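Tokens as discussed.
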């Protein structure tokens, strides 16, 4: 991916997971309420990142500003690795910024559990 493609991709509100010796995963995400499909994408990104970390690989997670979308994927990756949601959120804020995960909906997704948020978001499509 060229640097101009990279800049363009990040300005379209995407979350990116890149692992050394592997592929790059990119998904479109708003910095606001997510659909069931978008939550499922977060779960897939987080599982991929956690699996790579367990294998001793380096993982890069990024989004346009580096606070909410990347924070959500990183926190969910930590949860996949055994952290509680509170511990994951606290670690993200300690290491990145106290402003990280300032999107209340994203914090609620993590504390409720993405699996529950996915089910609840899926109810919107039934009506």
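Sequence:
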């Amino acid at each position: 991916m060229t640097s101009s493609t990279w800049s363009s991709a990040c300005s379209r509100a995407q979350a990116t997971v890149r692992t050394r010796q592997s592929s790059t995963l990119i998904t479109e995400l708003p910095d606001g309420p997510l659909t069931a499909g978008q939550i499922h994408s977060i779960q897939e990104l987080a599982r991929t990142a956690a699996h790579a970390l367990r294998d001793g690989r380096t993982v890069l997670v990024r989004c346009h500003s580096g606070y909410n979308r990347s924070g959500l994927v990183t926190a969910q990756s930590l949860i996949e690795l055994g952290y509680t949601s509170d511990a994951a959120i606290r670690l993200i804020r300690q290491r990145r910024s106290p402003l990280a995960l300032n999107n209340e909906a994203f914090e609620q997704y993590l504390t409720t559990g993405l699996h529950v948020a996915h089910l609840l978001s899926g109810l919107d499509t039934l009506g």
